[in-house]
Design brief:
mainly alpha
């Protein structure tokens, strides 16, 4: 039986929130683990990857071939979206870096991001 989309979405979001904040950041705060320690780095990476882990957990076909099909199935003309999001990501990273952001005023950066 296939669950409805809102139920899957709520389960995905709750699992992602629990993994990110409960197991990652929350555990670091409760146990006073600094981010600069090796266990702190591992927990930080786990917190960052928790949406990906939760998405894989909620796939219909959880086998390795199902994951490969999900990742590499390409729809027609979807490469344009990949290029668009890659350029936007590069723009955000370059504008937020220390070297470039000091050259522009804050209002100009906000206008460019909008």
């Amino acid at each position: 039986m296939v669950k409805s989309f809102p139920n899957k979405l709520v389960l995905f979001l709750s699992l992602t929130f629990f993994m990110t904040w409960g197991l990652g950041w929350g555990a670091m705060a409760i146990f006073h683990i600094p981010l600069t320690s090796s266990i702190g780095n591992v927990m930080h990476i786990f917190s960052g990857l928790s949406p990906t882990i939760a998405a894989i957990m909620y796939l219909e076909d959880k086998s390795l071939s199902g994951l490969k099909t999900f990742l590499f199935s390409i729809k027609r003309n979807s490469w344009q979206y990949l290029i668009l999001f890659s350029v936007l990501l590069l723009l955000v990273f370059s504008l937020s870096s220390v070297g470039i952001s000091g050259r522009f005023s804050n209002s100009l950066i906000l206008i460019l991001l909008i």
